Structures are given as structure tokens and as C-alpha cells.
């Protein structure tokens, strides 16, 4: 198996998924849950730079995350809370949504949290891993369309992101399988009403098919 060829295919997917939008100040930074602690690091950075006055961490999946992987397991939101506080974000500036188990629920349950708390936030910076930014945007255009938002992730290339993941104990196979899984979702989820359609360039789809043939299909969604 040619690792350079695999990386070339994976780099095409990464660059496609990492939709770039200009940052602007917002009422709140909204972080969608994942296994990647860098999203919490980035949220704290933006908070400390004055981009928003509040952070919402959404994610109910309990899993080991970053430096916290050897501590008592916590939900994604709780683990991200700990990371943000360690970076100097005041606890009172953080809201936790601890029930969501997927991207759609991140939006649905966070909207419920806003309503229940009577919070009149109108603008958001949505934060996720780089290769989930396009799907986050496409989902928000359905689930969060009444709000003003931009999507953002810690600036990265495929190579720098993969290097950091390997240091965190996240394998290359998992990263690439996550990316093929996200592209599959971008293809099939519009028909289910989960997100808006996004044009997928032919070269990106060809790279996706090649990666599937090479076995990077461990994170695919069911199509039923």
C-alpha cells in the first residue's frame, strides 16, 4: 500500500472538508462535541481574544479526550469545559449541553438550551474539527438557519492535523475513515433533510472512492 498515495487522496478530502469562512465577533462560540481536544483549545483562544463573551460546549458522548484520557471519563462537553477553564476561560462564561450524540442533536439540543435559559444570542462562531467544518455548515443551514453564524476550526493542514492526532493517540486510519464517513454523509444526508446539498468536485469523489477501496470505511453511516 503506497502511503504517499493514501496521503494524496486524504489531503484532497481534508482540504475540501475544511470550508474557510472569515472570522467575526459573535454573541457566542458554539463548540460541537468530538474526540479532538483542539476544538476546546481553539474555542478558549477565540474567547480570550475577545471574539465572544460566552462559549457553549455541546456533546453527551462519554469518551477519553486528550490529556484527560487517563482521568474519570466525562462527556465531551464536560471534558471541553475542563480544557477551557485551564486556558483561563471563566466557568461562568461557559454553558454545557450534555445530551447530544451526533451533529444534528448538537444543534437541536443547543437550541433547546438557549430557549430554556432564555438566552437571546443571535450570532455564533461554530467550531469543529477541520474535516467536519463543511458538514457543520451544511447542517447549520438547516438546523440553525435563523441565526447568524460562521464556521471555523483551528488553522491546520492535513499533515499538521495528522501529526497532532498521532500525538494524541488518534490513528491515521481513524482520521481518514472519519473523513470518508463525512463525505458519504454530505452525499446522502441532503435527501434525508439533515443538511443542504453541497457540490462535491469529481477529483474529491474519486479520492473518496479510492480510499474506500483501500479499506478506509470504518466510519460510514447507514443509508437506511
Describe the structure.
It holds the Pfam family DUF218. The model has no long low-confidence stretch (mean pLDDT about 90). α2 crosses α3 (about 75-85). About 45% of the residues lie in helices and about 10% in strands. The chain is globular. The strands form two sheets. A five-stranded parallel β-sheet has the order 5-2-1-6-7, with helices on both faces. The protein is of the alpha/beta class and about 220 residues long. β6, α5 and β7 (about 150) form a beta-alpha-beta unit. It contains eight helices and seven strands. It folds into two domains: about 5-15 and about 155-215, no CATH class; about 25-150, Rossmann fold.
Q: What is this structure, in a nutshell?
A:
The chain is an alpha/beta fold and 224 residues long. It is built from eight helices and seven strands.
